[in-house]
Amino acid sequence: MESPRTLEALTNDLVVEIFLRIGSPADLVRASAACVAFCRLIANPSFLRRYRSVHPPLLLGLLDPYGDIEPTETPHPSAALAGAVARAADLRFGEYFPSSKLSGYCVSDVRDGHVLLTITPYLEDDEDEKLVPDLAVCDPLARVCLRLPPIPDDLLASVQVQQQDLVHYSCDTFLVPSGDEEDVTSFRVIVMMRSTQMLVAFIFSSTTGDWSAGSPFSLGSLRIPYDNIPSYAYGCFYWKVESENRLLTLNMSSMEFSVVDLPPGPDRSFVIMVEAGESRLGMFSLINHGTTLCYAIRQIGSEKSNQLEMDSVIPLPEGYIYFRIHGSYEGHILIFGYAFSEDACFALEIKTMKIERVCRKWRGFCPYFVFLPSMSQRRI
Fold this sequence. Notes:
This protein is mostly beta strands. It is 13% helix and 39% strand. Among the domains are: 12-55; 89-220, no CATH class. The chain is globular, with a radius of gyration of 23 Å. InterPro entries: F-box-like_dom_sf.
């Protein structure tokens, strides 16, 4: 009689493949609590990157400039858990600076579960307003906050920017999406300073704790609207040039600006560039005075890079006068619909082109995506 066969132990690689197929983040958290070995596998940054690529994080709602949240509403699939997770997050950002002299703060950007704050300090009678505002990056779920060091004067001077140039410059501040970066424990912040004639970008890396500067760029006759939110794809930021079928780009590898032409066609407003896979750029744009949403694909780095491979019209929700697209976040395009009665926010999933209502639109402008607290990687 044959002896019974023993079941071989599962290898870590096989266990990881099983965990990747758990669709609910809540169930994954329960699995991590089963034993130390499971917790170690699930908490590994490499696993979390893979899990995140398959299972997107929760959309809690929209953050307004003051840190208040407009929560995701039913029937959006994130609505059931959004309320509980939002209560676990600490959005009272002023409490991070109890001993600081500040008159207020403003939410500038939200990426990868992190919130970028612009801080407004109290100024004494003999103090001048700063050329570059104070900045801080907060992780509301981890309840931690890092106040960034100021940009050194010698770095400003190296690109011909000085403190007395305050009246000539404006500042845009935003976070760099983590994308597929190997180091999930780091983040980067960009300060883009612009005058009527020049652009220059400064970047802060939490890895080094230092600022660096890109190459100054002469704008010439180019006009970039001040409310133009940049989109990000394949390591580049994109801004639509006003009244022209062209894009201003910032390459994060070289930290250099350049201008690219869009394919011929109707004047497009609120252009958003996304990663379409297989080295292709996806382009969402509004035409017909913000009433029609188009999607096209461009091939990168080929002779056809300035040609559209496909152009389609995506049906928008009914009952709205016009729409605006407001950037790409975590595989989604944010769409604002404006009506006589109540404005609303919608999220379009890039993979499926499915549009779902998120919540009403009041003051919120930054979508707040997060993993459940137990899966969040502390980066601050």
